[in-house]
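Here is the promised in-class demo. Please do not try to memorize the tokens; focus on the logic of going from shape to residues.
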């Protein structure tokens, strides 16, 4: 991607389990929980399919982040995607989220901090939003293994406000780095 200062271009939340979220002028991150007022906030998993499997598992998906550059990439294939459309809480620019190692810390000017836990697992709801989009969000690498492009998930390490225009400070974990996997 680019070498510009990573920044937040949009924030969103939704209190119900809908696919897309509602853009907001700001969101509040709550330590160990997620986004205040968002249906996916909680210590234990909140995604409905995961609750059915095991409601006691830890919530490694408190915050969903997507890079705005993805919207431009899929637009070349005729898809129209705007911030919050794919259910993300934070839309970024200038940061290759998918290349970050597990445990990367993203810090915002308020002191709010998110630890990246893994890749978003694209679901069939993506095709309900725009038919054919899910296939575009799952690529393959040179070995034929799936590559998930629908953003990353994280947990809130430090609470605080996040607003569009906020700079993002990236702190990598200690070596050796662990590649992101689906969470």
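The designed amino acids, position by position:
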């Amino acid at each position: 991607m680019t070498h510009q200062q990573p920044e937040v271009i949009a924030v969103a939340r939704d209190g119900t389990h809908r696919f897309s979220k509602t853009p907001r002028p700001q969101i509040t991150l709550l330590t160990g929980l997620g986004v205040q007022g968002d249906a996916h906030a909680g210590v234990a998993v909140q995604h409905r399919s995961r609750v059915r499997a095991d409601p006691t598992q830890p919530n490694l998906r408190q915050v969903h982040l997507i890079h705005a550059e993805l919207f431009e990439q899929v637009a070349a294939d005729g898809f129209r995607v705007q911030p919050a459309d794919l259910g993300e809480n934070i839309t970024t620019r200038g940061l290759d989220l998918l290349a970050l190692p597990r445990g990367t810390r993203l810090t915002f000017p308020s002191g709010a901090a998110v630890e990246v836990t893994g890749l978003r697992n694209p679901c069939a709801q993506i095709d309900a939003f725009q038919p054919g989009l899910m296939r575009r969000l799952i690529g393959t690498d040179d070995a034929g293994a799936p590559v998930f492009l629908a953003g990353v998930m994280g947990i809130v390490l430090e609470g605080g406000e996040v607003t569009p225009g906020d700079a993002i400070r990236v702190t990598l974990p200690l070596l050796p780095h662990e590649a992101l996997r689906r969470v």
